[in-house]
Amino acid sequence: MDEVTVGLMHPGEMGAALGSALRNRGTVVLWASSGRSSETTRRAELAGLHDAGSVQELLRQSDAIVSVCPPHAAIEVARSINGFDGMFVDVNAVSPATARTIAAIVENGGGRCVDGGVVGPPPRSPGTTRLYLSGPLARRAAALFAGSTVDTRVISEELGAASALKMAYAAWTKGTAALLLAIRALARTEGVEAALLDEWRTSLPDLPDDSLRAARAACIKGWRWVGEMEEVAATFKSVSLPDSFHQGAREIFSRVPRREAAERDQATLEKVLVALAKPGANVDAGPS
Prior knowledge:
The chain has helices at 13-24, 38-46, 55-61, 74-80, 96-108, 138-144, 161-189, 193-203, 207-238, 244-255, 266-276, and strands spanning 5-9, 28-31, 50-51, 64-67, 87-90, 112-119, 130-134, 151-156. It is of the alpha/beta class and 288 residues long.
């Protein structure tokens, strides 16, 4: 396909890495610094993104837009591009129903929408990160990343399919992390944590270390996962399956303290288990 200019909304850790992957294949990638935090500015600069200043200027200069933001902000971002008549690639962790709502907003504003879902870490090396895409323009969106570190996989021409896959995947990876932390908190509260750990070492030897991994990830990213678990729960409910599993996961992540520099160690796990024993949410708003 002809070279295009891509606008990125908004460069968090994953968004900046996707932008860097595009830039490394020769694509001009724009972002808008107006109203963004110093941390976001630092990420965008390190990724080599060009600052368009305002969202309006970014929309004017871009042929395609890629949206990567916390799930709770995905619809708001779609509304902010009203009047953009190019391709809008929404790769946020949202339910199929939310994906279709976003598509309707974009198309009512004059654009065309592609549904996407990212599985894996920020794509800093090949073979780590899959970008699943669906919708009539999915192959066109995949071409944006051709030759980059992002493995794109078109799975359907139906909008919402990529989001459905993302929800099913996150239901396991993040849902089970929340369950594991809740089990540790339960065992500690009941005074059987040491006995449980002894049994795990005998029959399920990976779980003690998995607990440390889950605690670190929840401290760093749990504030984002609150909204993601809401979207997963809504996806289950939409097909008449119980949504309470992931409503519970949402509550677990809302109680986890936010620690940007959390380590995968016992000290981090201790902070999480103490917080889980207390009702109420500790999560705050994410970075802008």
